[in-house]
Amino acid sequence: MQIRNGLRPMWWHGRFRGCGYRITAPREAILDVLSKSDKHLSAEDIYIKIHTHYPVIGLTTIYRTLDLLTNIGLIFKFDFGDGRARYELVKGPKGKTHHHHLICTNCNRIIDYTDFIDEEIKLLEQTEKKLLKKYNFKSTNKLIQFYGLCEKCQKMS
Amino acid sequence: MQIRNGLRPMWWHGRFRGCGYRITAPREAILDVLSKSDKHLSAEDIYIKIHTHYPVIGLTTIYRTLDLLTNIGLIFKFDFGDGRARYELVKGPKGKTHHHHLICTNCNRIIDYTDFIDEEIKLLEQTEKKLLKKYNFKSTNKLIQFYGLCEKCQKMS
DNA sequence: CTCTTACTGATAATGATTTTCATTCTTAAT
DNA sequence: ATTAAGAATGAAAATCATTATCAGTAAGAG
Ligand SMILES: [Mn+2]
Ligand SMILES: [Mn+2]
Ligand SMILES: [Zn+2]
Ligand SMILES: [Zn+2]
Q1: CATH 3.30.1490.190 placement within chain B
Q2: Residue B80 CA: which ligand is closest?
Q3: Class of domain B98-157
Q4: Which of A45, B40, B106, B141 is the most exposed place for a label (fewest CB within 10 A)?
Q5: For residue B143, which residues of chain A lie inside 8 Å, CB to CB?
Q6: What is the per-residue pLDDT for B35?
């Protein structure tokens, strides 16, 4: 397959080894695509990006790998309501982890927003504690999304 | 078809007429099922419930009607990540509108929670305003969900 | 009651994701 | 470096929720 661009271990190799997973060309390629994009890519998006360079890698493997990466917590899987899952590296280049999404219900544009998050996070963590007490529900993830119209789509309506 | 249980106009008839929609037996049946359940029903759930009594109504119509009801704002459509959409009347019997969801990622149980919402809503509305200013994004809906393990599933792990 | 056309349901189509299974490749052990 | 075990892969077929088609039905305005 010969995709490896050098044998230097990448930052995620350790995590993989620790879980008993093998490091393979498709996995390298997929993580590479994800880490070089700031978009919210679907499985097919990734497939197409990789396919131009390495036609060998199949869509099945993309799905399997994305599942794996989601499970070990390296990527987030989102559903923005357009019928296909979208994926995003948990840590962007600068380690910015927490952000939420604005979703235009007209053109499906996704806007990341990281502002005003501190208060949100604080409140949500409080809430999590209360939920644990009252419902015995141990929350591990929280999801916040705003649906509406983006600037462009407001003008057209 | 003859499902109408009486000719008395229901609370939602006005809304329907106003939008130019017709009042039909399948629509009555679907709204009836939804208003008598406190669960989060999928299209098929509803189909099965109705089908025992009125085998005439097809799944296609269920989907179409749920779409319609979602669009005119009578019901909410949710995706809890199990591959099928789930629906819920916007107003419960007592008019309780705002609530969010705890989702067990192990057994898929959904817990409604209405506690601690006031602060949340307040914060979110603040945030909405800020988002409008900064991104010119006009939010119409917000979604909050907590993912984690319910009481039962914590014990088993 | 009649007419227009919104609504319906059977059926087929779609399209994202999963399953299957024979083959290939990673990697730990020799 | 060689080898052996089994994890990972990809082509193809299968799933399965949702949507599109289309000819027939019925709501409801006049
Ligand atoms: Mn994002
Ligand atoms: Mn609910
Ligand atoms: Zn838009
Ligand atoms: Zn559970």
Answers
A1: 98-157
A2: 2
A3: alpha beta
A4: B141
A5: 143-147
A6: 94
Q: Is the pLDDT of residue A1 over 60?
A: no
B19: its two tokens: 């939008």
Which residues of chain B fall below pLDDT 70?
1-8, 92-96
Residue of A nearest to B120 (CA): A123
Ligand nearest to the CA of B135: 3
Extract the tokens encoding B139: 């939010």
- What is the pLDDT at residue A8? 61
CB < 8 Å to A79, chain B:
79, 81
- Report chain A residues whose CB lies below 8 A from the CB of B141: 105, 146-148
Question: Using 50, 70 and 90 to split pLDDT, how confident is the model at A2?
Answer: very low
Pure H helices in chain B = 13-18, 25-35, 43-53, 59-71, 117-135, 151-156
Residues B50, B43: Cα–Cα separation, whole Å? 11
Q: What is the pLDDT of residue B4?
A: 54
Chain B residues with CB within 8 Å of chain A CB: 79, 81, 102, 104-105, 111, 113, 115-116, 119-120, 123, 126-128, 130-131, 134-151, 154
Average pLDDT over residues A131-142: 91
pLDDT tens-digit readout, A74-110: 999 999 999 999 999 998 666 667 788 999 988 889 9
CATH 1.10.10.10 domain position(s) in chain B: 1-93
How far, in Å, CA of B114 to CA of A77, rounded? 26
C-alpha–C-alpha distance, residues A92 and B145, integer Å: 23
**Which fold does the domain A1-93 belong to in CATH?**
Arc Repressor Mutant, subunit A (1.10.10)
Q: Give B9's DSSP letter.
A: P
